[in-house]
Design a protein that fits this description.
- By secondary structure, the protein is an alpha+beta fold.
- It contains 7 helices and 15 strands.
- It has 3 domains: about 45 residues; about 70 residues; about 120 residues, Jelly Rolls.
- About 30% of the residues lie in helices and about 30% in strands.
- Strands 2-13-4-8-9-10 form a 6-stranded antiparallel β-sheet, with no helix packed on it. Strands 3, 5, 6, 7, 11 and 12 form a 6-stranded antiparallel β-sheet that branches.
- A hairpin with a 5-residue loop joins β8 and β9.
- The longest helix has 26 residues.
- The radius of gyration is 36 Å and the shape is rod-shaped.
């Protein structure tokens, strides 16, 4: 309803305001137009102060309040999203709600669009070490939960073998032993499910009472083996000659699944990124601007939800 109509409805019918050629009708029309234009100007001023509705120079002025200037070729929607991220960073972010909000803003999604966030995402971790018999190893799982590792054992010293290689978690007292020999070039894989030697199942030769855990806290491990045939026996028939134990160097790789502490992962459909014209790195930049200090953010792009 126009301002002319709002005023006219309070007048008596016999004033003939409804007659377009009457003097009162023309006066009301002129006053009404002035009031309507004033209201439009007021609304325009209000919109120029709102990030979602400001355009061009008005949006630049809002950006100036936060020390942001328009980049070369940057459009209003792009500046608007960057400005919203800056406002969130001033207000403080890091909450699930703040993360969901910045994702929706960057991808121009509805306010209620579901955003999948995985806290403490699962990561495959691996540590490789060179060890000798009876050498201890310090492990830090970098996880918020205990896990069962997979141990890969290989001998690096040529023309040698190890008998009954054993791995013990000194911290927990758990031990796993392969009852057999591993030669140079062999690959022994020990796990709580299936153990293999060069791809052949040797679970029946693997001995453990509960496969050693990798605790979430720091733990100390020890590798040992029976020297067996590697110990030479002094030959009494040859003067001043003897064969001594060989110093065997092995490579041990411990692999495990870790739930990463102080981290979260946002899973987003590839189609949404393509529609918004953004890459996963653009989205990650927005998350890094509002996440809590010391927290790691990841973006996982999936084909569909």
């Amino acid at each position: 309803m126009s301002r002319k109509e709002e005023v006219a409805k309070h007048l008596p019918h016999f004033y003939r305001y409804w007659d377009r050629v009457s003097a009162l009708s023309m006066i009301l029309a002129g006053v009404g137009r002035a009031l309507d234009e004033t209201e439009k100007d007021l609304v325009s001023i209000m919109k120029s102060h709102w990030v979602d509705t400001a355009h061009a120079h008005d949006l630049d002025q809002i950006g100036g309040l936060y020390g942001l200037s328009r980049r070369p070729g940057e459009t209003d929607p792009e500046l608007r999203n960057r400005l919203k991220r800056a406002i969130l960073s001033y207000k403080g972010g890091g909450t699930i709600g703040a993360v969901q909000m910045v994702v929706r803003m960057l991808l121009r999604l509805p306010p209620d669009y579901p955003v999948t966030i995985i806290e403490n995402p699962e990561r495959t971790m691996k540590k490789t070490m060179q060890v000798r018999a009876n050498q201890e190893m310090v492990m830090n799982s970098r996880s918020i939960v205990d896990s069962v590792p997979r141990i890969t054992f290989e001998i690096e010293t040529p023309d040698t073998l190890a008998t009954d290689p054993t791995f013990m978690n000194i911290t927990t007292g758990q031990t796993v032993t392969y009852k057999g020999q591993v030669s140079s070039g062999d690959i022994l894989v020990l796990s709580g499910d299936t153990s293999t030697l060069n791809g052949t199942d040797v679970s029946g030769s693997t001995v453990y009472d509960g496969f050693p855990d990798l605790p979430r806290r720091r733990s100390t491990w020890k590798y040992s083996e029976q020297t067996g045939g590697n110990v030479g026996i002094f030959d009494r028939t040859t003067f001043d000659e003897s064969v001594f134990a060989i110093d065997i160097i092995a490579r041990v790789t411990i692999e495990w699944k870790a739930r990463e502490p102080a981290a979260f992962e946002v899973r987003i459909e590839k189609e949404l990124l393509d529609t918004a014209g953004l890459s996963k790195f653009d989205l990650l930049e927005g998350l890094n601007a509002i996440k809590a200090c010391g927290v790691k953010a990841y973006v996982q792009v999936v084909e569909q939800a």
